[in-house]
Amino acid sequence: MRYAGVKELKQKTMDLLRESEKGDIIITAYGKPAAILHHVTEEDVADYLIENDPEFRSKIEEAYSEYLSLGGIEAGELLRNLEKRNAGKAA
What we know:
16% strand, three-stranded mixed beta sheet, elongated, 5 helices, alpha+beta
């Protein structure tokens, strides 16, 4: 992990982005930490949105509530039903 000032970030953005693949970079402004440059993949972005975007999370929760209200079942219940069905076929 290393530190980079705002000036370096402005002048060497692509270099710092490449370097962030090896480890986090703390960006400083006036000598104090201001942000952390952390490499992410496309999968990481999806996880980040689910964990940190309140609007996105709210939409997921609303869709899940609607699914349950229309007769959907939870994953655990689905698995139990499938196991019962498969146990009946094996016998």
